Amino acid sequence: MERRPTLSLNEWAVLGVLVEGPRHGYDVAAALQAGTPIGDVWHLTRQLVYRALERLEALRLVEPRRTEPSTTGPPRTVYGPTARGRTALRGWLVTPVTHIRDVRNAFLLKLVITDQLGLQPDDLIEAQRGAFADLLDQRAIEPPRSDHVAMWRHHSAAAVAAFLDALSTPRT
Fold first, then answer.
1. In 10 A of CB 19, how many CB atoms?
2. Same domain assignment for residues 85 and 156
């Protein structure tokens, strides 16, 4: 069985931007800066974008498509996803996170990329609800006020449950 490499959220974010459309690193960095849909969840510097592009290319998840002239430096390489990259991203977008703490970054990043690509998040939301079912069921048990960690986990689980419920509610 082939072992799949684990990608960082930086690499998933870059791959998500490239699946939306081929771009050069500078444009990818612009799409991942604060104030953009994906960048408001997970923003990257240009240096981190280029590092992610190198790794994604080495893993054959993206490939150079063409070069474009630049007025400020050397020609820019435009990257696009490979079929393998598209498949990997689609699989990641429907895979739930395993920890409540990952809802703020990884799960939210998946939702935003899903939205950017014009896909429906229903499968991810239901998979996430299933992955947290036991934990969310336990939130009905109020922990003792003296156990600060248990209280934090309890209220975090309640917030995630409310968030998943809100995502599942049809918009009018």
1. 21
2. no
Tell me: do 66 and 87 sit in the same domain: yes
- The predicted model gives 109-137 an average pLDDT of 93
Which pTM was predicted?
0.89
Q: What is the CA 88 to chain-centroid distance, rounded? A: 12
Which of 64, 88, 115 is CA-nearest to residue 6? 88
Report whether 17 contacts 38 (CB < 8 A): yes
DSSP code, position 147: -
Give the DSSP per-residue string, 60-83: TSEEEEEEE--SSSSPEEEEEE-H
63: domain range?
1-93
Residue 70 one-letter amino acid: S
Pick the last residue of a domain from 65, 93, 121: 93
Q: Residues 134, 169: contact at Cβ < 8 Å?
A: no
What pLDDT, on the 0 to 100 scale, is given for residue 154?
A: 84
